[in-house]
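Posted in: Structural Biology > Protein-Ligand Complexes

Title: Requesting predicted complex, 2-acetamido-2-deoxy-beta-D-glucopyranose in pocket

I'd be grateful if someone could produce the C-alpha cells for the following input. Sequence and ligand are given below.
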Amino acid sequence: MKPIKWGSSFSFVASVLARDVHGRCQGAEVITRDIAIVGGGATGTYAAINLKDQGKSIVVIEKHGALGGHASTYHDPATGTPINYGVQLYYDDQIGRSFFALLNITVSRGTFPDSKTPLYIDFTDGSPVLNYSIPPPGEDYFQALHKYPYLENGLELPDPVPEELLLTWAEYLEQFNLTDEAIATYSRPAVSGDITKILALYVFNNLNTVMLEEELEGKIIVNSNSDLAEPYSKALAELGSDVLLNSVVTGGQRGSKPTDGVRLCVSTPRGNKRVIAKQLVFSAPPVLENLKPFGLDERETNIISQFEGGCYYTGVVTNLGLPTNYSYVNRGQQTESHIASVPGVVMFNPTKVEGTYYYWYTSLSDLTKNQVETDTRDTLKRLQKTVTGADVNAEPIFMAFKSHTPLHPTASADAIRKGIYRDVYSLQGYRNTWYTGSLLVTGSSQLWNITSQLLPRIIAALER
Ligand SMILES: Cc1cc2nc3c(=O)[nH]c(=O)nc-3n(C[C@H](O)[C@H](O)[C@H](O)COP(=O)(O)OP(=O)(O)OC[C@H]3O[C@@H](n4cnc5c(N)ncnc54)[C@H](O)[C@@H]3O)c2cc1C
Ligand SMILES: *[C@@H]1O[C@H](CO)[C@@H](O)[C@H](O)[C@H]1NC(C)=O
Ligand SMILES: *[C@@H]1O[C@H](CO)[C@@H](O)[C@H](O)[C@H]1NC(C)=O
Ligand SMILES: *[C@@H]1O[C@H](CO)[C@@H](O)[C@H](O)[C@H]1NC(C)=O
Ligand SMILES: *[C@@H]1O[C@H](CO)[C@@H](O)[C@H](O)[C@H]1NC(C)=O
Ligand SMILES: *[C@@H]1O[C@H](CO)[C@@H](O)[C@H](O)[C@H]1NC(C)=O
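-- Reply #1 --
Done. Output follows.
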C-alpha cells in the first residue's frame, strides 16, 4: 500500500477536526483498508460484496445492528416466518440476479406480493371512502413518462431543466390534460410526507418503467425462503469482521489529492477505531447531519445542505381487533383525489402470519417510536369503532419498529433549476469520496446499477 501523505490544502475547519480525530482516536486500533464504506444498506452492502469479490479490502461502518437498511424483516417468534415490513420485492434484472448469485442465493421469478381485499378508509375519522378504486396508470401516463428517459435510471438532467418537470404533480396533471391519471399516479409512488407538494420530476423518477414492470408485469425475483433481508444476513456472514455494526464516524479527514486518502475516527461498541483508507464510499443518506463528521468543505456543504430526506416509519403489529381478511388503506374523504392526510398511517397490510400486519407511517417532521406507535394505536381504535365485525376491546400489540428517516433526499424546484443534480454528479470522487445512497433513484436494483457503474471508477482511483 502506498504511504498516505497529507496534503497542505486542508482548511482551518479540517485541521481543527484533525486534532479532534486524533484526540478521540488516540491510541485506538488502526484498521487499514483500500475502501471505507459508510452505511451497510442496499448500496453499501452491494459495494462491499462486489469490491471484495474483485480483491479489494474494505470495511463497512453501519450505524444499526444489522446490514440491510430499508430491508427490515421480523421473524414471527412462534413459527419463524419472515415478515418483510420494509422492502417488499426485488426487480428481476441482470444486476440483481448477479448480486444474488455472488451471495449464493437461489432466486426464481416471483409474483407481486399479494395483498388481501383493500378497505379504503379515512383514518382520521374511520369513515369508509366509498366507490373508490385504484386503476393502473393509463397509456397517457406511459406517453408522458417516455418523454423523459433521463429520469429512469438517475437524474442526469438536460440543461436547462425543462420547467414542466419542476411543476408540482397537480400542476403537471392539469397542464398536460392528465387529470384522469390522478388517482393512479398519486397512489403509487413510494414517497414520504405531503404528496400534494411532490414535483413532477420525482413522480417520473419514482413511478418509472422498473416500478411499473414490477407491478404490472410481475418482473420480480424471489428467494426460496422469501426473507428479503437474506441477502444482507448472508453478506454479513461473508464479510465478517470487515463490518463494524452499531458504529458511527465521529470525525474524519479527507484530502484533496488521491494520495491523501481518508482517515476516520469510528465509535464502535468495542471502543474507538481509526480507519485509514484510500477511498470512501458514502452509502448512508447524503444529508448534512450524516456528513457533518467528515469535515465537509464549502463546496460540499453548499451541495449537501440543499437535500432533505423524508420522514418514514414501518412496523409490525398484531391483535388489531379488525377482521383479518382485509388490508386497510388510508384515504382522505374530502381531499383532492382522496389523498390521505399526513402525518398518519399509510396502510395496514396482512402478512403470512394470520392476524399480524405490517404498517407504514409518514409525517412531515421526525417522530420517535413512541409517537408513531401511539398515533398508530389511536388510529386502530378509531377503525375498531367503524369497521364491521371489529372488536373495540382489542389492544394492539406492537412487535417491531424501524425508522427510515431521512428517506430518499430531494431538493427544491429552485435548487434543481440552478443545477443541483449536475453539482451532485460532479461531486463523485471529489476528496476521495463517492456517493451511492438513494439520491438519484429509489429502487434497490436501480441503485445497485448506479453503484455497479461507479465501482470501476472507485477502483481506478485506488491506483492513482
Ligand atoms: C418502506 C420502504 C419500502 C421499500 N420497498 C422497496 C421495494 O420493495 N423494492 C425496492 O427495490 N426498493 C424499495 N424501497 C426503496 C429503498 O430505499 C431502496 O431499495 C434501498 O434500500 C435504498 O438503499 P440505500 O443503500 O440508499 O439505503 P439504505 O438501504 O437505507 O442503507 C443506508 C444504510 O446506512 C445506514 N446509516 C444511516 N446513517 C448512517 C450513519 N450516519 N453512519 C453509518 N451508517 C448509517 C442505515 O442504517 C442503512 O443501513 C423501499 C423503501 C422503504 C423506505
Ligand atoms: C458462496 O460460495 C462460494 C463457493 O462455495 C464461497 O467461496 C463463498 O464464500 C460463498 N459466498 C457467500 C456470500 O456465502
Ligand atoms: C356508489 O356507486 C353506486 C353504484 O354505482 C351508487 O349507487 C352510489 O350512489 C355511489 N355512492 C357514492 C357515495 O358515490
Ligand atoms: C389540454 O387541453 C386543452 C383543451 O382541450 C388544450 O387547449 C390544450 O392544448 C391541451 N394541452 C396539452 C398540453 O395537450
Ligand atoms: C371477510 O370476513 C367477513 C366475516 O367473516 C365476511 O363477511 C367477508 O365477506 C369477508 N370478506 C372478504 C373480502 O373475504
Ligand atoms: C443500468 O442503467 C443504465 C443507464 O445508466 C441502463 O441503460 C441499463 O439498462 C441499466 N441496466 C439494468 C440491468 O437495469
